[in-house]
Amino acid sequence: MSTSRNDRIAGVLVGLGAGDALGAGYEFGPAFDGPVEMKGGGPFNWEVGEWTDDTQMAICIAENLSTGSLDLAALGDWFIQWSRECKDIGNQTRAVLSRASNGASLPDIAATHHLNHPNSSAGNGSLMRTGPVALAFLGDNDAIAEAAADISALTHADPLAIDACVLWSISIAEAIETGEIPDIRSGLAYIPSDHRSIWDDIITSAETKDPRTFNPNGFVVTAFQAAWSSIIQTPVPERRADHLRLVLENTVRIGNDTDTTAAIAGGMLGAIYGVSAIPLEWKTIMAGWPGIATRDLVRLAALTATGGVDDSAGWPANPNMDGYYRTNFPQGPIAEPLADDPGVIVGNIAGIEQADTDIVVSLCRMGSEPVSNVHIDVRLIDEASPGANPNLEFVIDDTVRFIASQRDTGRTVYVHCVRAESRTPTVAAAYLATTLGISGVDALERVRQSLPNADPNPGFVTYLNSLTRKD
What we know:
Mean pLDDT: 96
Strand order of the largest sheet: 3-4-7-5-6
Order of helices and strands: HHHHHHHHHHHHHEEHHEEEEHEHHH
CATH architecture of the largest domain: Orthogonal Bundle
Largest sheet: 5 strands, mixed
Number of strands: 7
CATH topology of the largest domain: ADP-ribosylglycohydrolase fold
Structural class: mainly alpha
Low-confidence stretches: none
């Protein structure tokens, strides 16, 4: 798989979690204008950056699919166990899971619930969690549609809920393959023919009406419309990666079930733009049940897409990549302070243990276990091809902004890649260019005082050349 495709695969689960955690503090509130922040709180008193039941159930699905196959009975059992320890659960999901003794009985219970409550059994609780389904069956839309329908039917048997999950999952798969906003109508071929005109009208409404029309949005159709309307009607800025943040903020501003509508949108946006388009400000603080953080969502998304198989380097499940790097990229430790800001240490992967800093920022793939109390992963590929880093400007600017914010609070930061030759000096130069107001070319020469072997690849050099002096 290409590096950019892997970026979008990881983006599905992290984007879902980001939207969820962003909306958690505004849940059940009215529509509003003004800033949106990942603030926690809300009716369930979430921690800052904590994801809710939307992501928690998606994690259950991804863990099940990461075994290499879908085991509906086991997934149902996991849902039941989860429901006994979760802080928050939707009314319909609770009604079904509380009546089940084992996962095998869930579809029957959900079907009975639909028959007994035909006018209130189409909640948004299965659409919110459907993002990971596409990851396990990329390239096979029939399998995606079947799995999305079956997983929805564990708790939400209403045809509207099932159709919504199929349409959204098919579109996520398309976005992963193309890196573009998908044609959501392409999924109409995978729902019953007599439902297609209904959903075509639903989609048209979402694309033409003000997103705030879709409030309240606990109903699966209005949740679907709120998310899609925000994606389609939020203008794509010149720097495409910024669209992800803008859409999620606009989705939260719609109000009502904000964590769920933003989670639904977030999974799609992550598939379009990749995990690299999600702000570090969010990824750094995101965490939640079952005691995991952003790096674990990246790992889980990758394993879901590969059926639980690591790559030749042992990534993503390998807890520590040191052995791989020592064997394939042998080098002594490098850890040097920047002359213009000694609170920023730059070096290679072998220098981590020598760098006594508050925060480690890794610009290369790392193992599943963090190497410090605050360990930040940045997706930056050392390749000159534009396709390798489709969000290059956003990623470097976002990383520089994060480093500067930490330095403003007096924290020390270790920035590293594998050999400290290309990625590390590029980010360090961008940081100095921004903080000192100098050109990227001049900044790189200053970095070479600490890293004399700095040799950024041509793509990074082009980026640094775009950073001009601020007089």
